[in-house]
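User: For a benchmark we're assembling, each entry needs the component sequences followed by a predicted structure for the full assembly. Here are entry 17's components. Please fill in the structure.
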Amino acid sequence: MIPLVGGAIVVTALLMTLLAVAGYFSRAGGTSDFTAATRPAPLLSSAAAAGGEYTSAATFLGFAGLLLAQGFQAVWMFVALSAGYVLLAAFVAAPLRRSGVYSPSDFAEWRLRNRRVRRMVSACVVFTGWVYLLAQYAAAGALVDRYVGLPAWAGWGGVAAVTLVIVLHASNGSDTGFQAVFFWVKLAAIGVPAVVLLVLWQVEDGRMVEHTGVPAFAEPTTVHVAEDQRLTLPEETVLTVAGRVNGRHLDGTAVRLAAGAHHFAAGSELTFREGAAVPHADGARPLEGEQWLEMEVDAPLLGAHSVQLALVLGVVGLPQFVARFYGAASPRAARRTVVVALVLVMVFSIFPLIYAGLGRLYASDLLATGDTDIVVLALPERVAPGALGLALATMVAVGAAAAVITVSAGLATALGGTISQCVLGGGTRMFRLGVLMAIGVPLAALLMLPGLADVSLVPLVLLAFRISAVTVAPVLLLGVWWRRLTDVGAAAGLLVGMAGVAAGVVVPLTGLDPATEPGRLLAMPTLLLAPLVFAVMVVVSRLSARRVPEDADAMLGRMHLPRRDL
Amino acid sequence: MLYLAIGSLLVALASVGELVRRAVRDRRRERLPAAAATCAALHTAALAAPALRQGLGRDSARRAVRHLRSLLGTPAAAIVGTDGLLAWSGSGTAHSAAAVRLAHPVLAGGRPHVHDRLDCGDPACGLRAAVAAPLVVDGQTVGALLAFAASETALPARAASDVAGWVSGQLELAELDRYRVRLADAEIRALRLQISPHFVYNCLTTIASFVRTDPERARGLLLDFADFARYSFRSSRNLTTLDEELRSIDRYLALERARFGERLRLTVRVAPEVLPVKVPFLCLQPLVENAIRHGIEGKPGVGQVSVTARDAGAEAHISVEDDGIGMDPDRLRAILSGQADGSSGIGLANVDERLRNMFGDAYGLVIETGPGAGTKVNLRFPKFLPKGE
Amino acid sequence: MTGRPGGPGPAEPPRRTVVTSPATRRALAARGARPLPPERAPAPPDVAPLLRRQLVPVGACALFALVTAVLLPALFTLVPRLDDLVVAGTPLAWIAVTLGVPPLMVCVLVLHVSRAEHLEHRAAAPPPGGAPARPPGPRRRLVVARLRPRTPPAREGDAR
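Assistant: Structure for entry 17:
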């Protein structure tokens, strides 16, 4: 875009990283006062840390982009996430804190007395984390690509390096303070520009999203088609094409194209007139203003509800949270941490709504390239050209960079612990190796599989939530609340869940149409898969009732009864 | 997405391949008939062993008797304790009531005993003979293993007493396990007693010196002393939280600071995440005491002692460091391997041993030291114990 | 991190050696060491009544979460007329989702948490040992802090 902006952002991001690392060490500085040193992290700070580990690039950038592309109905996803927090606080926070487990894998081994189930849970956790990390890398690549003009791999490498430095030094101190500080940074970075933009919008014209009409270009615009793509024109449009359209070669001549999908070859330049309707890339459906504002879910209901359910249950199984409970001062504190974190995250997610609304007014041309993920970054300069816009854009970019880095750090710590415990055996060196694997594998996947980087943020994060929802979450929920869960039952459920997820990823690619019967059966939506996993766990556990650990009662007691001492 | 799919497909293929490889390998192993029989017997025995290592109880007997029956190859088997039938496996449950009566001569005499002409009144029940073999722990008969068969000739009398001998061995090991735990408990008590005399004397002298000049402070110190004493005499648990342990050290240090004043400089650095970590009771205090002895005593000027607790993934790392006179590595090595004479460093050795007892050898103390180079004692604690208390 | 403590004094020429007990050295060399399981917990308390009593509040909470997350969008989709309802110039659905659902969720959660804590404490109320349940929180520490006059922190500040 503008090299100046790029430079400014690079400098700021570096500065921020340095500050972060420096702040880390100074915070870890010693004191001679034991009472101060052994004070547990305050509730607000641990809640902010829990919120900070969750507000990733997908929330920071992807959510507003999704709202812009799919309309307001995407808000339901956020409602589902909040419901996930409710489940987390109500069902697992306090019992897990009392049980004293550090990770979902620990929980599986402790509750079911089986190392193999532990390994299976670890595999699920690690896979979830890797997919989640992939999303962070993809976001970093997009940021670097767009703002600095460097190739995307520079962004991936940068994030990997910074995360590695932070996590390995985090092992010299504590992670709560770090995550908490950066939650506030992120909140300010997304909130302050949002408020300023709202004020500017009111001062300027305060126009509302029109109920009729599709997004239109506010000025003559040239769209560069980077790769072969199908663009959907909402209405009959006259445009100038230099390149190939629908197999026809055109040399900068004006054509009239009917409403509907058209094929454009890579390298084509399309010039639209002022007031022309914005074409929609990536199969996005053009939405009239009224449709955009609606809360009606227009995806097939089953699919939409599957996403909802995956989000609700997915939150429960995310590995960062379980680790956060371990560090809580008490079971009460663990519960309260989730409640406060829910409030904080709710406050945070007001802002993507603002960006999406303003984006529909000022930046709807992003739909033409499918780059809706960057609407948060692009908006400040659209609304306020000049120094103010630049400053706000920088602020938002710093926030996005912070989101990528902090969430990567949180994930890498959790995964590093899991990997080192499960595969390598404990110890400092093994933990470092584990962190290296946690960070390195997604990076290697991105480098070796070039198509991976093009997947946009939200589907990747959804996949991570889906894995967690049909594997780790059922084990946690049943293990905490149902005495008769056995290792065999849990293992069977985990296998079904993993197979279901794998099929869901594979089936759409094998050419098997998910709409047809066998395809639908294989690519089972979460709405069916999650109950199936629960059912398999329950039925197989009942069938293997002999294998209920003999001290299951004691374990349940430990999880549910407050203890008088310790 | 495509690549993700290919990736997962590859992983799936690899796991299938591994399964096939294992199956083929297992098949190959079973080619030798004699070896296969031994292997099967050992395998069955190994299945029964974990239950028996819990000691002889209703629950452990229930879990073990199935495997013992398949080891004996009889239609039914039972385990009887001194106070009645513990477990029955196999057909003819009508005999289970008689099992206690059958076992009685064995429990009394300690010799294997064969009964024929059993009759339960049920014509469908084919059990007509039984052998009872004693389970002996420490020279005392604690129970009997019974095997039932259709006739005396089909009775594996020899095998039954051999299996009973093996079961007795496992039960003795279980007893040994219990002794080991009791020993560790005793050790903790022993360590607790060691704290007192030297330290109590010093404390009381220090407090006495404040009684006139600063009665308020003397009062505070006495309260500290009382708190610390109460903590260290607490007897119920082996594990406590790092939080509690650090607080007790705080009280201890308040007393030491009163004694050394400006000469003791202290730095604490604790990550709040590791405060709930379970640590052995009184595992840090001896180390801090050691650091103060080496950091300040025997050295002019100011001594620095720092306590650091860091969060490291699934573990908590704690170190206690001083900049004092250091220790001779060879002597320290001898202390840690239990070969040193004299009483110095016994606290270190004790903490080391308790840590290894509790968490495994890999969690012993790692000490960096040299003459004149100060000492740094590193401890690692797993954040989670699979069977934690 | 093998840093020296930052105390004053001459640079120390002697180097430190790493010492462990022989068993630890062997265990560390053969990596992949895992913690030993310690002995078992005694006395399993009876948790079944508590779980039974919690069934209703917990079920209600789960139902609420699933209803808001899964059924509410279905409601708005299957009954499109709801979408057309406008209150004070704003669609009802918006008000419901932005102003209604989040506070409701927090309220339900807070209620549930307090209720669950109440139930748990009641379940743990008859202490077998006799001592009443120590209320959680830093009360104990406050008492300690009040009783003990600390060494003035300023002095340590000067010494550094």
